[in-house]
Design goal:
single chain, 25% strand, UDP N-Acetylglucosamine Acyltransferase, domain 1, alpha/beta, Spore Coat Polysaccharide Biosynthesis Protein SpsA, Chain A, nucleotidyltransferase, UTP:glucose-1-phosphate uridylyltransferase activity, 504 residues, four-stranded parallel beta sheet, globular, eight-stranded mixed beta sheet
C-alpha cells in the first residue's frame, strides 16, 4: 500500500503539531519555575503542588481538541442507574443511624465571591434570612444534627485564595457551637494568555499587576487539594467514610439520612462510591449538566462539552429530563485511591475571560461531578426539587427571604400554607441586582404564598405588607418610577407607567 502525498502531509502536520505542543509545554514549565523562584520557601512548597496539578491539566489541554464527546455514543442512563428518591426513602432508617453519621463529613464549596450580587468578600457571608448568612445556616444545620443524634459530624469548607482570609476571621464566632470546622484551600492556578498560552503573572504575589493573574480552577479541584492538604488522611484516620459535598449557596443541600443509610447498607463488594443527586429539569434549568451513559460509564455532560449543532437538543426537557444539583456523596477511601493512582478523569472546561485592560486569557477548570465516571458503582438519585434551592441572584434571594419558606434549625422548607409545591418564577430587573439596592427597594418582603410569576423592571419600590398573587408584572419605563403602596394586594395584574407616592 503506497503512501499518498496527503498521507505524507498529514504525517508532517502531526509531527509539526507534536513539536509545537512540546514547545508550549517546555515554555510553560520554564515560566512556572521562574514564578516559583519569586516566592518564599513555604509559599513555594504549596504552589509547587498546585503547579504540578496545573501542568497535568495543561498537558491534557494541549492534547485534546474539539468537543470532548462523540454525540452518536451518547445514551440515556440505564433505568437502575438513577433511582427515584422515594425508593431509597421507602427502606426507612435503622435504629442506629448515629453509627452512619459518625462516618460522614459535610463539605461545602466556599471558594466564590459575592461579586455577582454586588457584595464584597465571600458569598457565604451574605445575609439570606433573619440576618443569618449562608455560613450561619450551614453551621446551625450541622449543630442541630449533632445534638439530635448525639454525633459529631464535622464541617469542612473548601476556600479559595479569594475567600480564605475573610472566612477564617468569621469562624471564631462558632467556637462555642457543637460542630468542628476545618478548612482547606483550593489550588491557585495561573491564567494564561490566549495567544501565547503562557502565564500572565509576573510573580507569585496577588496584588498590584498580579491581581487578575490567578484563579481557583473550578470545584473539580476538590480531589487534589483535599488530598494535598492532609485533611483527607486525617479524616480517614478518624474512621470517616463518606463526604457530602454541595455548594454553600444551595440552601436545600442538607444532610439526608435516607441517602446516607442507602450508602452505608450496601454489601462491601458492591459499595457505591459516588451518588449524584439529580432533579427534574424545568425550563429554568436548561443549562444544567445532565447524566448520560457513555462507553459503559455514567458520565456528567455539561453544556460546554456539547457540539454547537446539538445545543438545542441538550437543552430539551424531553430528551435529557434531569440535571445535576451538585449535591454529591463520595467515598473518602475511593478519593484517596484514585488520587494516588492519578486516575481521576475529568473533562477540561476552557473558560475564556477578557480582563479589565482588554487582555484575552483562558482559565482551565474542571467540575467535581465530572469525576463520576472514575468511581465504582456510581449512581444518580432523583431527589425532590426542594434539595436544590440555590441563591445565585437577588431574584433567588427574594424567594428565600419570603414567607414561601419557613426556617427550622437552619433548614428552609416550603411553607405548609402554599397550596402548590412549585417555586414561583421571579425575574427582577437590573435595579435589583446588588443586594444593597435590592434591600432599599422593599420596606419589607411581600407576601408571596400565592404567587406564580413575578417580573419587575425599572425603578420600582415596594411599601410595607404588599401581597402578590398569581402573575404580577410591574414595568416602570425609563425615567418613570413606580411605588407600590403599603398594603397593596396585586393579583394577576400588570402595572406600568408612572406611579409616584410622595409623603407630604
Amino acid at each position: 500500500m503506497s503512501l499518498t502525498v496527503a498521507d505524507l502531509a498529514r504525517g508532517a502536520m502531526t509531527e509539526f503539531q507534536e513539536k509545537l505542543r512540546q514547545q508550549h509545554e517546555d515554555s510553560m514549565h520554564r515560566e512556572l519555575e521562574a514564578l516559583l523562584a519569586t516566592a518564599n520557601k513555604e509559599e513555594a512548597e504549596i504552589s509547587r503542588k498546585d503547579f504540578d496539578g496545573f501542568k497535568k491539566l495543561f498537558h491534557r489541554f494541549l492534547q485534546v481538541k474539539g468537543p470532548s464527546v462523540d454525540w452518536a455514543k451518547i445514551n440515556r442512563p440505564p433505568e437502575d442507574s438513577i433511582q427515584p428518591y422515594d425508593r431509597i426513602k421507602a427502606k426507612g432508617l435503622p435504629d442506629n443511624i448515629t453509627a452512619s453519621l459518625n462516618k460522614l463529613v459535610v463539605v461545602k464549596l466556599n471558594g466564590g465571591l459575592g461579586t455577582s450580587m454586588g457584595c464584597k468578600g465571600p458569598k457565604s457571608l451574605i445575609s439570606v434570612r433573619n440576618e443569618n448568612t449562608f455560613l450561619d445556616l450551614t453551621v446551625q444545620q450541622i449543630e442541630h444534627l449533632n445534638k439530635t443524634f448525639n454525633t459529631d459530624v464535622p464541617l469542612v469548607l473548601m476556600n479559595s485564595f479569594n475567600t480564605d482570609e475573610d472566612t477564617k476571621k468569621i469562624l471564631q464566632k462558632y467556637s462555642h457551637h457543637r460542630v468542628n470546622i476545618h478548612t482547606f484551600n483550593q489550588s491557585r492556578y495561573p491564567r494564561i494568555n490566549k495567544e501565547s498560552l503562557l502565564p500572565i503573572a509576573k510573580g507569585m504575589g496577588l496584588n498590584g499587576a498580579n491581581t487578575e493573574a490567578w484563579y481557583p480552577p473550578g470545584h473539580g479541584d476538590i480531589y487534589a487539594s483535599f488530598h494535598n492538604s492532609g485533611l483527607l488522611d486525617k479524616l480517614l484516620a478518624e474512621g470517616r467514610e463518606y463526604i457530602f459535598v454541595s455548594n454553600i449557596d444551595n440552601l436545600g443541600a442538607t444532610v439526608d439520612l435516607f441517602i446516607l443509610h442507602h450508602l452505608m447498607s450496601q454489601p462491601a463488594d458492591k459499595r457505591c462510591e459516588f451518588i449524584m443527586e439529580v432533579t427534574d429539569k424545568t425550563r429554568a434549568d436548561v443549562k444544567g449538566g445532565t447524566l448520560i451513559q457513555y462507553e459503559d460509564h455514567l458520565r456528567l455532560l455539561e453544556i460546554a462539552q456539547v457540539p454547537k449543532a446539538h445545543v438545542d437538543e441538550f437543552k430539551s426537557v424531553t430528551k435529557f429530563k434531569i440535571f445535576n444539583t451538585n449535591n454529591l456523596w463520595i467515598s473518602l477511601p475511593a478519593i484517596k485511591r484514585l488520587q494516588e493512582k492519578n486516575a481521576m478523569e475529568m473533562e477540561i472546561i476552557v473558560n475564556p475571560k477578557t480582563l479589565d485592560g482588554g487582555l484575552n486569557v483562558i482559565q482551565l477548570e474542571t467540575a467535581v461531578g465530572a469525576a463520576i465516571k472514575s468511581f465504582k458503582n456510581a449512581m444518580g438519585v432523583n431527589v425532590p426539587r426542594s434539595r436544590f434551592l440555590p441563591v445565585k441572584t437577588s431574584s433567588d434571594l427574594l424567594l428565600v427571604m419570603s414567607n414561601l419558606y419557613s426556617m427550622d434549625a437552619g433548614s428552609l422548607t416550603m411553607s405548609k400554607k402554599r397550596e402548590f409545591p412549585t417555586t414561583p418564577h421571579v425575574k427582577l430587573g437590573s435595579s435589583f441586582t446588588k443586594v444593597q439596592e435590592f434591600l432599599k427597594r422593599f420596606e419589607n418582603i411581600p407576601d408571596m404564598l400565592e404567587l406564580d410569576h413575578l417580573t419587575v423592571s425599572g425603578d420600582v419600590t415596594f411599601g410595607k405588607n404588599v401581597s402578590l398573587k398569581g402573575t404580577v408584572i410591574i414595568i416602570a419605563n425609563h425615567g418613570d418610577r413606580i411605588d407600590i403602596p403599603a398594603g397593596a394586594m396585586l393579583e394577576n395584574k400588570i402595572v406600568s407607567g408612572n406611579l409616584r407616592i410622595l409623603d407630604h
